[in-house]
Amino acid sequence: MRRVAERIVGERVTMRVVSFFLTLWAVPFFVWAQAPMPDALVRDVTQEVLEIVKKDKDIQSGHTKKTLELVETKILPHFDFLRMTRLALGREAKNATPEQLSRLSEEFRTLLVRTYSKALSEYREQKIVVKPLVVKPEDTEVRVRSEIHQSGGKPVTLDYYLEKKPEGWKVFDVEVAGVSLVTNYRSTFAEEIRAGGIEGLIRSLAAKNRASAETKAK
User: Fold this and answer.
1) Nearest CA to 86 among 99, 104, 112?
2) 3 state SS of 35
3) What is the secondary structure of 128-193 as a DSSP string?
4) Whether this model's pTM surpasses 0.85
5) What sign does the CA torsion over 97, 207, 174, 116 have?
């Protein structure tokens, strides 16, 4: 009886372990099944954000706190800032420690918050059209194309580069009128690194972010 009991207990423990690991694999599968396609993600987030801006006069007039909250809650969760930081650093990324990359990522994130906040405060009924995308099952990186239409001017291309992650699609670069966001920062970052190393770049970004925050607070 004792051996039978031990066998039953052992089988239960084994089943629990198996069940645990099956759950770990099932979670990302469930996320994939529920996650929207990259073009749908860009379109839905864009529409939601612009609808909020259209209805909120404070944001339209440049209300800093509300604009920052909108960017933080609706836009930034869909970005991969660590990869963006690595791309902006280029070859210098291999010389940065994990701790430096983390700090740089945070400062770069703050920098992009300011960029998006300014863009939203300048929104004046432009229309953004997201073009449909065909995604293959094996695709892990895609380019979602869109255009900004404004009265009296030609459409401006706005493309998003996304990578498939366990938690869904994440943006790692944005291209405006053919100009890459991360590539645009790369030359600036390289100059800062040549002048003061990785730490010098971190200090420079932190100083610019503080100065911008202080200016908005006045």
Assistant:
1) 104
2) coil
3) EEEPP----TT--EEEEEEEEE-TTS--EEEEEEEEEETTEEEEEEEEETTEEHHHHHHHHHHHHH
4) no
5) positive
Task: Render pLDDT for 130-179 as a digit per residue (tens, 0 to 9).
Answer: 999 999 999 999 999 999 998 888 899 999 999 999 989 999 999 999 99
Structure tokens at 191: 């100059």
Q: How far apart are CA 105 and CA 152, in angstroms?
A: 38
The whole-angstrom separation of Cα 75 and Cα 138 is 26
- Three-point CA angle 159, 162, 164, nearest 5°: 160
> Is residue 127 within a helix (H) or strand (E), and if so which, with residue range?
strand 127-130
- Give the Cα separation of 205 and 189 in Å (integer): 9
CATH topology of domain 36-217: Nuclear Transport Factor 2; Chain: A, (3.10.450)
Tokens for 87, please give them.
């791309």
Buried b (16+ CB within 10 A) or exposed e, 6-41: eeeeeeeeeeeeeeeeeeeeeeeeeeeeebebbbbb
